[in-house]
């Protein structure tokens, strides 16, 4: 089991370690908390985030009341080894306001959209694994890559038509259809957003060198 000392982290003067929580799927920053040694070791052992409450002076596992646990994917120290980044899969809303993130602005609470494309990718992957639900996505996978590719082409043309015509709202709708069908095509061919990001990053850094 990983120990507190193994991370080679430098604790703050109060003996607590700042911990940034990030959604592993959407990459959205969810909250900031603090850990002492016991909280860290409990988190590592249970693979669920446990903090040290500075107000209550005790350990508390996130989700122990609400059921919205934070399941740990990875733990990484920052460059100065005095802050911890934990990427998680949350069971539900993280903030006490019932929002996905503690950093969600009041005016954004009704429609939290940051990182939704990655969440949509997860839904598409689930539909592909399941293949038993009667959904449009499942139907596309059943019809095969040729049909999916055809839909991508159709939506691309419709997006271009609305762009050239200057119809912004219509273009956004068509572009949304295009991205959805492209995500389905990526899944059908064993690819993902991460593969696209990697390719674009390689091109970017190559161009800068």
Describe this structure in words.
With 209 residues, this protein is of the alpha+beta class. It has two domains: 5-105, Phosphoribosyl-AMP cyclohydrolase (Ubiquitin-like (UB roll)), CATH 3.10.20; 116-208, Orthogonal Bundle (Helix Hairpins). It is built from six helices and six strands. It has helices spanning 37-46, 116-130, 136-143, 145-165, 168-188, 193-208, and strands at residues 17-23, 29-35, 50-53, 58-61, 70-77, 84-90. The strands form two sheets. A four-stranded mixed beta sheet has the order 2-1-6-5, with helices on one face. A two-stranded antiparallel sheet has the order 3-4. Helix 2 packs across helix 5. The longest helix is centred in the last third of the chain and has 21 residues, at 145-165. It is elongated and about 60 Å long. The mean pLDDT is 88.
Q: Short summary of the structure?
A:
The chain has 209 residues and is an alpha+beta fold.
List keywords for this structure.
alpha+beta; Helix Hairpins; 4-stranded mixed beta sheet; two-stranded antiparallel sheet; 2 domains; single chain
Mean pLDDT: 88
Give the biggest sheet.
4 strands, mixed
CATH homologous superfamily grouping of the largest domain: Phosphoribosyl-AMP cyclohydrolase
Strands of the largest sheet, in order across it? 2-1-6-5
The level 1 CATH classification of the largest domain is Alpha Beta
CATH architecture field of the largest domain? Roll
| Terminus-to-terminus distance | 41 Å
* H and E string: EEHEEEEHHHHH
Helix run count: 6
Instruction: Please estimate the helix content.
Output: 40-55%
**Uncertain residue ranges:** none
């Amino acid at each position: 089991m990983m120990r507190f000392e193994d991370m080679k982290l430098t604790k703050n003067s109060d003996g607590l370690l700042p911990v940034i929580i990030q959604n592993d799927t959407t990459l959205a920053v969810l909250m900031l908390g603090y850990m002492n040694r016991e909280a860290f070791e409990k988190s590592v052992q249970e693979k669920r985030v446990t903090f040290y409450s500075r107000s209550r002076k005790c350990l508390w596992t996130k989700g122990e009341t609400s059921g919205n646990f934070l399941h740990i994917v990875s733990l990484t120290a920052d460059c100065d080894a005095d802050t911890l980044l934990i990427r998680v899969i949350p069971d539900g809303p993280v903030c006490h306001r019932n929002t996905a993130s503690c950093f969600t602005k009041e005016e954004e609470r009704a429609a939290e959209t940051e990182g939704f494309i990655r969440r949509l990718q997860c839904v598409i992957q689930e539909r592909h694994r399941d293949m038993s639900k009667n959904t449009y996505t499942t139907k596309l996978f059943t019809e095969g890559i040729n049909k999916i590719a055809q839909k991508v082409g159709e939506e691309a043309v419709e997006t271009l038509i609305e762009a050239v015509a200057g119809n912004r709202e219509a273009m956004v709708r068509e572009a949304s259809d295009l991205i959805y069908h492209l995500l389905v095509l990526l899944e059908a061919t064993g690819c993902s957003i991460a593969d696209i990001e990697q390719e674009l990053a390689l091109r970017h850094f190559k161009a800068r060198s």
